[in-house]
Amino acid sequence: MTHATPTGEPARRDLPLAQLLSLSVYWFGIQTIWGGLGVVVLPGRFDDISRATSGTMLAVIFVIGAIAPIIIQPTVGVISDYTVSRWGRRKPYIVIGSLLDVAFLAGLAFSNSFLAMVAFYFLLQVSSNFAQGPFQGYVPDLVPARQVGIASGLMGLMLTLGTIAGVGIATAGPNFMSEPISVLSLGVIEVVTMVILVTTVQEGTGAPERTQSWRALALSAWGRDILKQRNVLWLLVVRLLFLGAYNATIVALGYFRRSHGLSADEADSTVFIATVIVGVSTALAAIPGGRLSDRYGRRPVIWAAALVAFIGLAGVTVAPSPNIAIAAWVPFGIGMGIFLSADWALMADVIPKETAGRYMGILNAGTAMAGPVFIILAGPIQDFVAAVASDPMGPRAAMAVGALFVLGAAVALTRVDPTRVEAAQAAAPL
């Protein structure tokens, strides 16, 4: 007989730390790719092609790339919810998506034209999100409520370390190997973490009973019933805006080159230093952020994170020197680390658990849209301000957009009810 906790959630055994780490390590691999591409490879290539339109080119490629995760994550996520296989519900999709990532990353690495880069970037988004949608169902699937905070903190830590690794490889790699090979090595790291995940995580082979065709099931990913999940929709907005602010790192290379007059090599080194500082700050804050959210509640901790991140990003916007700008990344990183862990825990709290893959996919569409929404606003604003005011002011304006995104996320969070789904269902009158 399965016993229930006081919240009405079926009791689960606590997972050992090694298993929690296994559940998180794939995030390291995923973020190694996106950190390297988003912070170094694509901004550097576009800035070299045309500094005057680099912001707009980034906006184009990120907007096109966002189409895939918006469609793929929830769709494949809900299909994985009902998949029955010897490997379990999630693993087949994770393996296939990871292997395709390497193929499409190779195409992007060896592309020389803007159109080819856009095409392979889009395909990379398709394959990566084919794996991510199902993968994100693991925490709601396997982690008991009392361990969600620590699991979320570990996830934030791995995301941060992955960004540092990706930026480091993309920055230093061309000094030891060709740039295409250094880009391709990002995918190799992801495959290694995928192997660790699928060989160590025991997810079981069961699944809810499927009552409709696979086609109907896939089409149901964005069914109208999502409109009844107001918490999910508002949390989607919160994630889009807060993580959009995190994507201010996309314009960091141009910011140090143009706003502070650094050479290309100096800017590359400074961006790497800033990324490490942000990463270390984020990593140090991630696990405490998850634990604090367990103690004081998800929303108060996220509001505190928003305040700290806003102060940091506002400081970057007005910093008179590179050193002060780098120092301002510290509170920004701390705020992001706290947010990543507390926000993930809040996601696990408010989604319906039976179809966790679907709802985690929908919420992580906010992650996918964050970069494009930020750059589609900040990129043209950067180019416009640079044209009408001065070139150094353009990237500063883009950073200011990120600071405003954080404030918007804090306001949207007021509409999210943090009550865990199982607790709300248990308290509802029969």
Computed Rg: 21 Å
Proportion of β residues?
under 5%
Number of helices: 16
Order of helices and strands: HHHHHHHHHHHHHHHH
Briefly note the CATH topology name.
Growth Hormone, Chain: A
Helix proportion: over 70%
CATH superfamily: MFS general substrate transporter like domains
Mean pLDDT: 84
In the residues, how many domains can be counted? Answer: 1
Shape: globular
Which segments are poorly predicted (pLDDT under 50) over 5 or more consecutive residues? 1-10, 423-430
Task: Determine the N-to-C terminus distance.
Answer: 22 Å
Structural class: mainly alpha
Would you write up a description of this structure?
This protein is an all-alpha fold and 430 residues long. The protein has one domain: Growth Hormone, Chain: A (Up-down Bundle). The protein has helices spanning 17-49, 54-81, 91-109, 114-135, 138-142, 148-172, 179-200, 214-219, 230-246, 252-259, 264-296, 298-318, 322-350, 356-388, 393-412, 421-427. α4 runs antiparallel to α14 (356-388), α9 (230-246) packs across α14 (356-388) and α10 (252-259) packs antiparallel against α15. It is globular. The protein starts with 16 loop residues before the first helix and ends with a helix.
